[in-house]
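Quick start: read one record
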Amino acid sequence: HVRCVGRNLTLTVEDLYPHHGMKILVAGDVEGHFKKLFTKVQNVLKKSGEFDMLLCVGSTFSNSQECQEQWKEYVEGSETVPIATFVLGPCSTEHTQFFQGVGPDGGELCPNMTCLGQRGVYTTSSGLQIAYLSGSYDGREYGKSRAEERLCPYFTVQDVQGVESHREREGFVGVDILLTSEWPRGVENHTTPPEGLDMRRVGAEPISRLAASLKPRYHFAGKHHRFYERTPYRNHQVLQGASQQVTRFLALAQVGNPDKKNRYLYAFSISPLTSMDPKELVQQPAGVTNFPYSDIVRAKAASREDLPEQNFFFDPKALAAGKKRKQRDSGMPQAKRAPLLSQSPSAPSHPPTRPPAPKGPCWFCLGSPEVEKHLIVAIGDHSYLALPKGGLVKEHVLILPIGHYAASTEAPQEVLEELGKFRISLRKYFHSKKQSCVIFERNFRSQHLQLQVIPMSKTPPEALKQAFLDHGKTQGMELTEVPRETALSELVRPGAPYFTVEFDDGPSLFLRIKGRFPLQFGREVLASPLVLNTPSRVDWKACNATKEEETSAAETMRQNFQPFNFTDDSDD
């Protein structure tokens, strides 16, 4: 594996001659030395051309005055980040001040710099899978349950299990990159250990087990101010199973350190494993060593101490697969999960779940004094239909849970099933009038789950889908196509912000919201000249109507919808 080495930078032959791969830079602990890092990065860009992104591991900030002053310049815009940069969350309590307003699902810290979040798997538009786990290891915090929706400087067993569950996806063979601030315990086994470190005090066993589960092609870590490039290790036992891809572990030093050999920036090119020929993917380089974490994995398998009471997840199909496995083990029936916005009402019934109480006044809880009952169209056991204030069109309808649930990802099965029945009934109603129907949900700065249902003249689903994709691009957002039957629980964990939209046919679109998001995005698309051509109705507050007009519109909708209303006793 020939290597060209420059000052604090490593380039491989693959970097110089990439085959349709992404060019990526990885930095160690920045510790507030932003100008030193980005000056170095700009020099690399001038010499080697554009790179797709910069990933940072370890501590991004420090307690120094220099850090405070430099960071202020980047936040205010007098200094700019020259490349799309993704960092991990804080490693110490003192640094949480720099992540104000950023939750566990990440968000923008300053223009062109994003915090990935507490843990998860980020998949780029090219299919590259980047798993990440923020925070330091503290044995006193590791086993605790964490309910707060905030970034924490320590990771827990829930966080590890959440990332680890990615391996339960269908066809899983590994991830491309794993980012952690902590080193894995025992990484030096079967190879030359790093100089200047007491390895008895370095690393965390949960990181070792995470690496064993995810089988990353590259694993980057920071925190110990030491560059260490381990010999690649295999993820299988020789002659005892099929060959698998090797893992290259690299620890990076702190930015700006004076030691030329103690490198803090690494450059490489990588193609997504999902696009590679399987034979090429599992090629074993010369000098590859045995798997270093065997003893740790065996010890944990024997004790099973790491099984939490709840398995929180992040990426597609992970939690659903885990729940199905638990149900099979216990002999319980397997309930269907709600697809994105198209729930089949055939799942078995469950004991009703008591909804959480709202934290303040809620305009949509049916028992709330704030709800405007004159807008109600139909009421079921767990949900109801109502006209919105300032609808986009005459029969714009909301599907809402009766109890207080913030999003589809937080609603229990019996609520999801009835929401699905209303969706089916409304589609039948609008289709009987030769109309198309778009249904979207925004779980961002909203207190109560709202499914927005907007009818329009018959429009090809492909055209509507393209309108959302194009408008998303103008806002710097990339919506992803997902199969219609995909469950939201497979894409995002409860509490995480998202936007999703469903059409009459074909795939739905999904966006996991990170940072800013236009609150009227769905209305902007549908009100555009290419769809409804009603730009004056983008803002619902500008669509004034008297209470008498609203009451009359709701009564008309009740009468028209009655033949399709499954809640009507005469329909049973």
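Residues 480 and 529 are 23 Å apart (CA to CA).
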